[in-house]
Structures are given as C-alpha cells and as structure tokens.
C-alpha cells in the first residue's frame, strides 16, 4: 500500500462524523488502519464515493481481488472476517453478482412488499400497546422496546425465522457490527451465524412456506443454476442483518432528531411536511450504516493526485456523503426536514443498491407515524449529549434511547 502514516480508525465509534470530516479534508482517499493492523483507503467525499460505487474497477469480492486475503495473510480470526468471508451477492463481482442479484431479486417483489403492510401496522400497534403500562415519568428504552423489535421481527417473518431463533441470532449480529471485538470473538461470530442460517434452511426444506428463504431455495436461473449452499446461507444472513440493523438505527436516529427539533416535529404533526421528508433527511444527516467493509481496487485507480493501487481495500463512508459541505453547503451537518435537496446514498448506489429499500421505507413511515400519533408528548429522558454511540465505526446509532412516553403529571394534579 503506497501511503504515508495511516490514520487509525476509532473502533469505538465515539464521533464518526468528526472523524469523517477530518478524513475528508485530507484528500479524496486517505490511508487508514482497521482493527488487526489491516490497512485500507477511506473515502469520505460524496463525488468520489458516487463514482466509485458505479466504477467497474471496484469490486466487493475479497476472494477474487484482495491479494492478502487470497494469500492467507488475513487470518481466519481477523476482527472483521465475517464481513469479507461471505459468499453472496454482496461480495460477488461481475457476472456472478448479476446472477446472484437476479436470483435474490425474485424474492423482493412489489406484491410481497404490499402483502406485509398489514402485518407492519399490526406489529407496530402491538409493540406500542405494550408500552401503555409504563407510568408517566418512568423512562423506557425505546431502542430496545420499539426501534429494535419492529424491523427485526418483520425481517425475521419475511425470511421465515421464528422469534426464538431471531433472539439467538441477534446476539451474533450485535457482535458482528461491534468493531471492538477480539479475534477469538470474531472467529466465533462467523461460525455462529452460519450455523443459525443452516438450521433455518434445513427447516424450510422440510417445511416450505410463503417466505423469502423458501423462495431462495426454489429460485433458479433460466439456465437451471441455483444458489449454492454457501450462497444461500450467506444471502439469507445478509438480508436479516441488513434489513434489521440499518432500520433499527434509522428509527433511533429519526426519533432522536425529531425530539431534539420540536419545531420540525410540529411541522410533521400538522401535515406541512411529510414522513417521507423525515425519512430522507434522517438518512442524509444520520446514515444508519456508516461504513460497510470492504471494496477492492481491480486495477490502479487515480483520484485527483491520489492513487489506490490494484488489490488495495477501500472503505466507503456512507455517513459522510450527506454531510459533505460540497454537496449540501455549510448546513450539511444540520437536521432540517424543510431543505429541498436531501440527496444521500444510504440505500447504496449502482449495482449494489438495496433490494429491500421499498420495504424499509414502508416500515419507517408506518412506525414513525404511529409512534408519534400514539405518544404525542414523547420526550428524551436524558440530554442528547448523554446518548452513548454504538461501539463501532460500521453502524451509526445509540446503545440505548431512553425516553418519557408521556408528559409528567404535575404534583398538584396527582394529589
């Protein structure tokens, strides 16, 4: 890797936005150090990111284009091994990616999106009903009680996973996004989620149903090819992880932003601004996925005085795109649902654009709209500065989201 002294990324994710600002100012691509001393190029400028996401010289396949991985220099217990060892459309390249995306795309139909809508409404109200018993003035962790279970349970139902199995798998996902894990934990994560997915697939082969896993088992290309066992296992896990974790963080960030900007919340409640505006502005200023490991240079890539050599890994910072002042001006870091241009790349861009974007938007709109209708006096139970970030530079959210569901009852009124 042709570079000077690399910047060591903060694995605790204490301030991912300030870190992105620093790296953006250093150039179109900046050498950084990942956990385990692995070196990569960090990209934080919106124009460079947009170009690289559609550049055929950039791949997500470590097994084909990362020499250190191919040669065994990246150990099987590397802290981030789960992100690059997958064998699915997320890590495929060229014709293989087209084949896999076409097969998986058959499971994400418009019909399925609309069919799940009544269940999203039902589950949203069920979760909010359960909060009715919380007394006024008693804080509740809305991330744990609402932001997490709504998308997680919906995605689990889409792939045909039981609530019990989801609870076990969720622990694996939480460990996977944690960039402070040890090598020993990293090795266990990889085996843990593959075992869980293998159990799910075996169950669906024996008991096929109306779910994505059953569809993927049956899916075949026109030439008769199917997903291999590894592709099937890793694809289902990718759907579960991507569909749940990103939407969990979206709810977390959207609720936080609205509660800390009450004037803007009133614009939504009064109908002057739509929930779609809230969704896109949240995705712009607080992308739920910060940085997704990894991409690789298929050949030398020249970027305004910087060259990313062939075979070097690239870390794209999605959370930096919408906050780039060259795209959104000096107020790029401010939450403003009235701004006209809310451009972001939080669903990706180009060949890896999120297949589940339609479902995610629907869950987000129903979830937020119902939450604030049911609990119009919702407020944070702590100062925004006291919210603790997740221990990761991959995802963007909080460890907890303590809120008061109702306004406190005055002492005189309760006497």
From TrEMBL:
Q: Which Pfam families match?
A: p450
Look up keyword Oxidoreductase and say if it applies.
yes
What are the protein's UniProt keywords?
Heme, Iron, Metal-binding, Monooxygenase, Oxidoreductase
What domain of life does the UniProt record list for this protein's source? Bacteria
Q: Which PROSITE patterns match?
A: CYTOCHROME_P450
Give TM segment ranges. Answer: none
List the GO molecular function terms: heme binding; iron ion binding; monooxygenase activity; oxidoreductase activity, acting on paired donors, with incorporation or reduction of molecular oxygen
PANTHER family assigned: CYTOCHROME P450 YJIB-RELATED, P450, PUTATIVE (EUROFUNG)-RELATED
In the record, the note on similarity to other proteins reads: Belongs to the cytochrome P450 family.
Q: Know the name of this protein? A: Cytochrome P450
- Native organism: Sphaerisporangium rubeum
